[in-house]
């Protein structure tokens, strides 16, 4: 699949992302106004650009931690197993936590990560996703904050990859495969 030639069409500009982050941060600020420290948990790797912009727009005392999860599909049962490849460095019991994800697609990853974080008994637990593809959902999950709802398109840029490429694009673009003769 990674061999097929493709072009990237811009879907969401860097300017629109920045404006949306400003609005989201004002809501996050209101929700955690009284926190003594907010643990901002970024899901590696796709959220690394989003989390960098988000924390610089958040006027709150924060700590940053990272979690890496991977989901493996089972085509026979259409079930998915989510594995934790890298866990948090610090315990979150009794703490305020904001989990930051790039895209909620089928919902399996965030459903699992949310349950895992919740089992550690944080004081408050909220989630934010830059993008949401509601039409692709297989398990119920809705982030507390969403940047943009998008249709069922494969997107890249702003931290998000296609076969580990294009994470460095400053905007969100959709991958359009070109017709070939073979
Ligand atoms: P979910 O478990 O299906 O919700 O998976 C979400 C993860 O799939 C995201 O964190 C992304 O890493 C990946 N993903 C989903 N849609 C896209 C896309 O359009 N481009 C790149 N990665 C995607
Ligand atoms: Mg991801």
Please give a structural write-up.
The protein has 182 residues and is α/β, with parallel strands linked by helices. The chain has one domain (6-71, 78-177): 3-Layer(aba) Sandwich (Rossmann fold), CATH 3.40.50. 22% of the residues lie in helices and 36% in strands. It has three helices and nine strands, in the order E-H-E-H-E-E-E-H-E-E-E-E. The strands form two sheets. It has a six-stranded mixed sheet with strand order 4-3-2-5-6-7. Strands 1-9-8 form a three-stranded antiparallel sheet. The longest helix has 18 residues, at 14-31. The protein starts with 5 loop residues before the first strand and ends in a 5-residue tail after the last strand. The relative contact order is 0.21. The model has no long low-confidence stretch (mean pLDDT 95). The structure holds inosinic acid (IMP) and magnesium ion. Magnesium ion (MG) binds at residues 43, 46, 102.
At a glance:
With 182 residues, the protein is of the alpha/beta class.
Compile the SSE list and pairings.
Blueprint lengths: L5 E7 L1 H18 L6 E7 L3 H10 L4 E13 L4 E8 L9 E9 L3 H12 L4 E9 L12 E5 L5 E2 L15 E6 L5
Parallel strand pairs: 2-3, 2-5, 5-6, 6-7
Antiparallel strand pairs: 1-9, 3-4, 8-9
The structure holds inosinic acid (IMP) and magnesium ion (MG).
